[in-house]
What does this fold into?
Amino acid sequence: SFRTMYSIITACVMGAALAQGQDLAKGEKDTVFIGTLNVQPSVQEWAKSKGRELTLKRAAETLESQLITALNATRVFQIVERQRIADLQVEQAFAAVAVNPSDRNAAQQLKLAGAKYAFLPQIDGFEDRTEKQRFGDIDRVSMDRKLFFSAVVKVVDTTTGKLLPDAPSVQLSKTETVEMAQSDDNLESDQVVVELAKEMASKLSQGVIALLRPAKVLTVTGKQILINRGADAGFQQGDFVEVYATEEVTDEDSGETFRNEIAVGRARIVRGDAKQSFGQIEGEDTGIAKGCVVKVVKSVEAPVRPSASRSSLEPAPVESSEEDMSPGSSEKPLKFQ
It folds into this structure.
């Protein structure tokens, strides 16, 4: 009815106004710092017992650096350096005694920017298992390697010290397959570990952004909407997005704030770049307006490009019986490395 549509549109506009009132001054961003990546002791013990400590360390180092890169690329937060704060303090101390005090670019002691949020990443799950099959008659070996990775980012409001109740968590798995190699030396590649960690960093950063600064409609022109997020935040051409009118609701018992969401329409991403996307409204529009929240509900998988490398990131083939695995059979012809 008209009354229902009016209420929904009003909720969308009120939600946008409330969000603007809570945000920083125009043009500013929340400042955050990313804590040192922590690996749960039980995960470290498993890796040590299986001789996978080096692989775990490689994955952790890549995840730590790529998480900073992924968050910075979204342009949503202002990230401040904390992990190498000693280097900054050295420069500040040097500037205090050896740099012209009138130089505006000189580092100043006790002038590090504060951070509203602390992102504390943690690896809480990791597996790296390899199965090899040898064909002695032809001196060949095949390998299936399965990797599993689980990580979470705890978010702390530094102004209160409170841990936010929702923590983005991601679990991923990859499989690396090598068939009929001449030798079993160096069959396990570093590439699959790095790509797994990079994908994990991207998904975690998107989860953090959705938690603190969800994507919003900037303007509506006819059937087209402009969204303040682009490819760096996970909005790809062809994706379907749901649009919601929102309002903040406070629980009188706990004092906790909730965001009530009312679906007002759906759109498909038709184009965009790293920082913005254009969506085409499809189906019924019951109040899509500036300030409404946007969420990806169906992602379009990027096409897999064929590679000449010996490693594969595709899911492992269904396991076959020993008889099916006979080298040279018509159902499984030989594939030499």
